[in-house]
Amino acid sequence: MAGVELIIEEKKDDAVDRQKVCPFLLRVFVTSTGYHHKMSDYNKGNTPQNELQIYTWRDATLHELTQLVKEVNPEARRKGTKFTFAFVFPDLRQPIYRLREIGVTTTGVKGPDDLKTLAQLRINIGDYMDIAITPRKSWNSKKGILE
């Protein structure tokens, strides 16, 4: 059996053929305060002012979304800037919105949430994404608190 080479290729369960599958609109709301928007900002058909509209696929990673936000937000490009991601979705029992944090990425630092995909995080088409950006200068990584 000399000369036979076996190549095993791992295929992601949630991989999307981006040439054949149409992207969906993800409405993203960003704050630079380090905190997510208040849920009252989303009630009664309202949304926060600073909206990014991103066309993406279910296999998009948090790292990929971080890169897209950095393209339009120059302050977020600095090493050590933290991005805290959350889904905002309607409560099925009450006429209000709920927030569920889904991960954190940091500019210039590889982290455990970087490769999480929207599909793995169980996004529903129509959910909003809320991203709280915390600049390095206001984040104390040793204490884990805002200064």
UniProtKB/TrEMBL annotation:
Pfam families: SAP18. Coiled coil: none annotated. InterPro entries: SAP18, SAP18_sf. Belongs to the SAP18 family. This is 18 kDa Sin3-associated polypeptide.
